[in-house]
Each structure stands twice: as C-alpha cells, then as structure tokens.
Amino acid sequence: MQDLRRIDVWMRWEFEKLNAGLVTRPKSLRRLLEVPRLETREGEPIDLDPPTLERLASVCAAQEQDRLRLPITVHFSADVADSAFVLDGLAADVLHRLEGWGEAYPYRDGKMWLPQSLAVDLLLRYGGALQRLVR
Length: 135
What we know:
Elements: H1 2-18, E1 27-28, H2 29-34, E2 37-39, E3 45-47, H3 50-58, H4 62-67, E4 69-70, E5 72-76, E6 83-86, H5 89-99, E7 107-108, E8 111-115, H6 116-126, E9 130-134
Parallel strand pairs: 5-9
Antiparallel strand pairs: 1-4, 2-3, 5-6, 6-8, 7-8
C-alpha cells in the first residue's frame, strides 16, 4: 500500500511539471485586446502577441469577444496517444472559423477532437492564446 502512495505522489509531481506555466485565471478576449497579458499559476507573466489577438477578434462578434476566454485550453490525454481535444464550444467554433476547417473536427458530446499533430501546430502558431493541459 505504501508503494502505491509513493507512485501516486510521484505521478502527481510529474504531471505538475508537465503542466507548469498553466494559466488558471483566463481572461476575455476583449480584455486582452486592451492589456495583452496573462499570468501563470506560478505568478509568471505571459505577454500575448497583439496581432494574434486581433486575428482571433476578427472572426468573433462583439458578444463573443466578451465570452471567449483565453487561453483556449487544448487537452492532451495519456489515454489517447494520437489526439487532443478542446472542451469549450465557443473556442472550438472560433478555431473553426479562424482555420477554415468547414465540417472537419466537429464539436460533439462536449469536445472537439483534433489530431495531436494539428493541436501542437496550433499551440505553436497561437502562442499564449492557447495552452496545453496534460492529463
């Protein structure tokens, strides 16, 4: 039993390292257009690229700019090796419009599944406007 507890503690520690730099207090796109800065749970600032925020805003209605919370979290699961997902329906819709995906990657059952390679590409291209969460 003691060994299982040690493994549990070790695994929690490993996931915390993988998820270092996670933003736990997202902000609306509208607010970030004014002050393009987020903060990690460790208190480190993340300066966002204003042109990236403007690009996101260009595909959003005014009401969506108030509702869209950034960073958009892309979830990676150890249970699914080749895919990642987005839970936020509005974020999924905005990414669809932004990327011109059409019918590809539909939002169903509360998730938009993406190939892992595409998810990584999005994270690299959109910087701090998207973040990864490893589960």
